[in-house]
Structures are given as structure tokens and as C-alpha cells.
Amino acid sequence: MAFDVLKSKNPTAFAVGFSLAENTNFKGISKHSGVFNNEMPDTIVIHYTASGSAESAINTLSNPNVKASAHIIVDWDGSITQLIPFNKIAWHAGRSTWNGRTGLNKFSIGIEIVNPGHLKKVGQQYQSWFGKFYPEEEVMAAIHRNESKERYWHVFKEEQIKAVKEVCELLIDKYGIKEILGHEEIAPRRKTDPGPAFPLDKFRDTIFNNRKESNSDTEEISKGIVTANELNIRENPTVASNKVNSPLPQGTEVTILEKNGNWLFISTKVKGWVNSNYIEKV
Ligand SMILES: [Zn+2]
Predict the structure, then answer these.
(1) pTM attached to this predicted model
(2) Which of 179, 195, 259, 268 is most buried, by the most CB atoms less than 10 A from its CB?
(3) 112 is catalytic
């Protein structure tokens, strides 16, 4: 039924949003406010659907009488349905404020994760606002960041968090997204989603720190100097491959373009692969 970004192995078509692959579950509803302004979107807003299934969330968000929409809905199993292309403004944030901006819809992509939200304990079970009961193993007790008392919340599935992470990473690559926020942070008096069951702080720290580390790795290795008396430079990252030129003399300055195991693809007067043991990073 739904397009699964993890199974498809074709995340680019999905992330682009303007030219979705044939196999995406794209409903293309018209509940949006047109195309984002230049440089936007730069933010992702995470929500829960406050529903028991993707189907009911999709029905609600597709209903022309309901003034709400979102770009994608992530089902319990991590599968994804897209309602609005990523280049268009959806209606998920409502009245909202963050860092001096108001009305976050025009700056952000909205991701809805299927989850009933907070639950009320009734006997040995836990009941959602729409009446459905959930067993204890699907529930956690936690204090919401905007509240002071512990309440019960439905846990998110690992598959959902994994799918959301993958989508966020794609959107960061495609749009240069700078911030991932919860609806509860941009509308704290009205909204509790995604709530304490979603590990929002850890989630965004991991995503942005990982990227910083991999970026600084590249910067760190961008320049180097040959330390061997003579260093062979080859067509491919293997000793069996042909030499592209006479060996590089000691002290040659190189620009490192790529790393592959113990080999570096470097550029000097020529380009080729060299053994990384004989390059000192500068
Ligand atoms: Zn929300």
C-alpha cells in the first residue's frame, strides 16, 4: 500500500518530491498554499497523528473539510504515504512561533507519525482519546517537556523512528534543513506532539552531530604532503593497478578528494590513488 523508503532503495526520487517515482504512494491532495519561497523549507516539524492507524490519519488529512495537511505520514511499520510534494507548503503547524518566526508552515516540512498520543489508565489497560485500549507493553510513563506531571504515552516503533531519521537525512541533503522541531515546541500551549515517547532531543543531536563529524573529517583530510621518498600513484585503489605517472617525490603537496580503505584519491599535477600511510595530513 504505502511507499517504503527503506525497501525502495530509491530515496532520491522520494526526497525530490517534484518527480516522484511511479511506485510511491503519493496521494497528491491539493491542501497546500503553493510553492515555498526561495531558501525554504529550512525546518522539519515532527508530529504524531493522534490516531490508531495511518488510514484514519490519511482520511482526515485528505478530507477537504478538514483544514489540515502534512507532507508525509509514517505508519507503524515505517512505510510512508506522501500527501504533499516537499516543495509545497502544507498545513501542519497552525498558529506557531519559533526564534522570532510565526506561522511555521511556510518554513517547514511536516512529518506525521502514527501514534495515538497520550493515554489514560483504565484498570490494567490504557485508553486513547478515541476510545481504543492499548496493553501495558505499548505504553510508557513520562513527563512532557511542557508539563510537570507524569502521564502515559504510546511508544513509537523502532521502524517508525528509523524511517523518520532516513527521511530527515534525505531532506537535509536536498534542502539544507537546519532544524528539527516538535510541534509541542512551536505551539507549546496548544500541542503535545510528538511528546516524550519520541526521543526528539537525542534524535536531532544524533543527526546533526553525525553530519558535523563527517563534514569535519572531509575538511581534515583535504590537504596532505607526501612523506615517502617516492610514492606510487595508481589508476585504482589497488597495488595491482597501473601507475598513472612517475612516483611523487617526498614533500609533494596533494589535495585529497576521496578515501577508500587504506587508499586516498589525490590531486596534484596528476590525479590518482596513493597509499594513505605515506600522506601526512596538513
Ligand atoms: Zn502536530
Answers:
(1) 0.71
(2) 195
(3) yes
